[in-house]
Amino acid sequence: MLALLLAALEQMIVATALPRIVGELHGLDKMSWAITAYLLTSTVGLPVYGKLGDQLGRKGVFQFAILVFVVGSALAAAPPRWTSSSPTARCRASARAA
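Given the sequence above, the corresponding structure tokens read:
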């Protein structure tokens, strides 16, 4: 049940963030690249997590995946001054300087 909730939440986050991502890539024609990158990483990640689940135990791998999701979501939601070394923050800083 928790896995379905997190999967739905991830889809909602990606769908909400996609227009901003495309805007930072400077063009609607780049949207296909963003979607392809997301689908490719999801497709590659699924068998990797499955193999790790078989070798290390599903519960531990599932808890690790939840931890990665929560930390990634927290970092994405953090104000730019907390993550000033991120590429987005550097891009914003260089845009302000210009």
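The first helix runs from residue 2 to 24. Try to locate this feature in the token string yourself.
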